[in-house]
Design brief:
The complex is a heterodimer.
Chain A (H helix, E strand, L loop, with lengths): L1 H6 L5 H6 L5 H11 L5 H13 L14 H35 L4 H14 L3 H15 L15 H35 L2 H8 L4 H13 L1 H24 L5 H10 L3 H29 L1 H8 L1
Helix pairs in contact in A: 5-6, 5-8, 5-11, 5-12, 5-13, 6-8, 7-8, 7-11, 8-10, 8-11, 9-10, 11-12, 11-13, 12-13, 13-14
Chain B lengths: L1 H4 L16 H11 L1 H23 L31 H7 L1 H29 L1 H16 L2 H12 L3 H27 L3 H8 L4 H9 L4 H25 L10 H8 L9 H29 L1
Helix pairs in contact in B: 2-13, 3-5, 3-13, 5-6, 5-8, 5-11, 6-8, 7-8, 8-11, 9-10, 11-12, 11-13, 12-13
The chains are: A mainly alpha, B mainly alpha.
Chain lengths: ~300, ~300
């Protein structure tokens, strides 16, 4: 599907690269050297075959293999996504748990309403506001995610805090809301009442009985948010001029560099599939009912 | 519609005067909901700006004035001027126009397509449902931004493309909601009665079932409108949506944020706050509508 979107829709590739005033013979020659004048099915077969062998094709614009670009960009994006995830997963869950333990009190209201309002805002809007506050007025954090060459781990981290914050804000609302409703349900259940009644300390009840059950749906939400995260990366990487997979796709789309675009989007598809798989695995590790069910 | 769902045959209770039609009930609880009214006020403000704003703003939002470019907020220019001297205040007010045209149209398209699809797969079930539902799930897995990127690269940028792309990306989500509502309705007696009368499938779906699944459709539509505004703003910011010289908010941010490091905060802050207020307003309305139907 990605291939069709990239190859069939754009029409004449040579014409798109050389512009409307180029000589028709030059256009034909370029089309031939790029191989786009062959029948579609042949192109598709070659593309899949090469992709599986690690050859993602040749960029129309850079006239160089696509693979190194994609892999480097993916590495950058992973760093950014990782920073956002490492921040948001514990804080989001904590927020949801605190809200549930203070159900309908002011603290719950603040966390729920605050989470909901930041979740619905587009990333570039929160991004701009955060840049203004921390980058322009307070001058605490750099406004572009471009660290000097050879920068160490902590310098890179310092540059990545601001870009990861908008992603953090969007995800925080979702995760906190799921953790909150999971907690409310678990706190209300019979096994929690039993645990309390048999005299277990409150702390043990929360850790051993409530949390384990409450967080299961949250894990599913976190996995489905990878799909969102990828969309968010396109925006954030553009805003912060960060050379990740999102900005790679964006640049490729603007420049009509179709092999790059296809390779980028297919890579994202693979990442998404892997993330879903990991979530399923985690889910079964944490949920004995599914694990034991599979063994029977 | 009222013939099918008001309990007309019910013995009248002593407090008949207090009884309202179901829609009156919903309206009543909406008007008492602070969330809904706050959201409505914000949204109506921006609609008024979109409709009449251009007659009230102090400057022409498109008129440049290079000599006064990038001047900070002052008594003459409340929100300052942008890089070619256009008045930011006037642009923010009139900038609501394009997003408030494109986003509702996209939502309308999504609602119509999604409702029709949801009715069909919910009513027929079986293999139609299985096949279509899997395809819809596959569609929903791809982020809207990516779909939009591909479609707009292929088809070129125009408001119509944005409406179609967002409308079709959101249709599966509405279809899923409608489907689950239809699955519950189709087992009810009035549907069986329609079948016994030998009404056609089209009649049963659109005349009998549709009026009874309006509440979930309304809720889903208001929620989608919030996301549509999110998506339109994002696409404009990426340069794939509304095109210059429109004073659209996302577009203004994208053409001005490059200078943010120079301290020209007024060129982007007010547009960002405008988007934020509109999105939050629509979501408050959606929250209110959801609450009114689920009480």
């Amino acid at each position: 599907m990605v291939f069709l979107g990239g190859q069939v829709l754009p029409g004449n590739v040579g014409r798109a690269i050389l512009g409307p005033f180029a000589d028709q013979r030059a256009v034909d020659a370029l089309n031939h050297s790029l191989g786009v004048d062959r029948p579609l099915l042949v192109q598709y077969g070659t593309w899949i075959w090469n992709f599986l062998h690690g050859d993602m094709g040749t960029s129309y614009i850079f006239r160089a293999p696509v693979a190194p670009f994609v892999i480097e960009a993916l590495g950058h994006s992973m760093k950014l996504a990782l920073v956002a995830f490492v921040l948001v997963v514990p804080i989001g869950i904590l927020g949801g748990v605190i809200a549930a333990l203070n159900l309908n009190r002011p603290l719950d209201r603040i966390i729920s309403l605050g989470g909901l309002s930041v979740t619905v805002l587009p990333e570039f809007v929160t991004g701009i506001i955060l840049i203004l506050i921390f980058g322009v007025w307070l001058r605490w954090l750099p406004i572009a995610a471009a660290w000097p060459k050879g920068a160490g781990f902590f310098t890179q981290l310092y540059y990545l805090i601001l870009p990861s914050l908008p992603l953090f804000l969007v995800l925080f609302g979702y995760i906190a809301r799921m953790a909150r409703s999971g907690m409310i349900e678990a706190l209300d259940s019979d096994y929690t009442r039993t645990a309390v009644l048999k005299g277990l300390p409150w702390r043990t009840v929360i850790w051993r009985h409530v949390l384990r059950n409450a967080l299961l749906p949250t894990i599913t939400v976190i996995a489905t948010q990878t799909g969102y995260l990828i969309g968010g990366l396109v925006v954030i990487e553009t805003l912060f001029r960060y050379q990740g997979i999102g900005s790679l796709i964006f640049t490729a789309a603007r420049g009509k560099d179709f092999p790059m675009l296809e390779a980028g989007i297919l890579t994202i598809g693979i990442v998404y599939a892997v993330a879903t798989l990991i979530a399923d695995f985690l889910y079964s590790v944490l949920n004995p009912r599914i694990r034991l069910g599979a063994e029977q | 519609m009222s013939a099918t769902d008001t309990p007309a045959g019910m013995p009248s209770a002593p407090d008949t005067a207090a009884r309202r039609s179901p829609w009156g009930e919903v309206l009543h609880s909406l008007l008492r909901s602070g969330t809904f009214l706050t959201g409505l006020a914000i949204v109506l403000f921006w609609i008024a700006c979109a409709l009449f704003g251009e007659h009230f703003v102090p400057y022409d939002p498109l008129a440049d004035d290079i000599i006064n470019a990038l001047s900070p907020p002052s008594a003459e220019h409340w929100f300052g001027t942008d890089q070619i001297g256009r008045d930011v205040f006037s642009r923010v007010i009139v900038g609501s126009r394009d997003i408030l045209t494109v986003a509702p149209l996209a939502t309308l398209l999504a609602t119509i397509a999604g409702t029709a699809l949801g009715l069909i797969i919910g009513y027929f079930r079986g293999i139609v449902d299985d096949v279509v539902s899997r395809v819809l799930e596959a569609f929903m897995a791809i982020p809207v931004v990516i779909v939009a990127l591909l479609a707009i690269v292929a088809l070129g940028t125009s408001k119509a493309t944005v409406i179609v792309v967002i409308g079709l990306s959101f249709a599966p989500i509405i279809a899923r909601t409608v489907r689950s509502a239809v699955l519950a309705e189709r087992e009810l007696d009035y549907v069986a009665a329609a079948k016994l009368r030998h009404e056609g499938a089209m009649h049963t779906m659109f005349v009998e079932i549709l009026p009874n699944v309006i509440p979930p459709i309304l809720v889903e539509t208001t929620v989608r409108l919030g996301y549509a505004i999110f998506a339109v703003a994002t696409l404009s910011f990426m340069g794939f949506g509304i095109q210059p010289p429109s004073p659209d908010w996302g577009l203004s941010i994208s053409s001005n944020y490059g200078m943010i490091g120079g301290g020209f905060w007024w060129t982007v802050l007010f547009d960002a706050l405008a988007i934020a207020s509109l999105v939050i307003g629509v979501n408050l309305v959606a929250d209110g509508v959801h609450g009114a139907f689920n009480d």
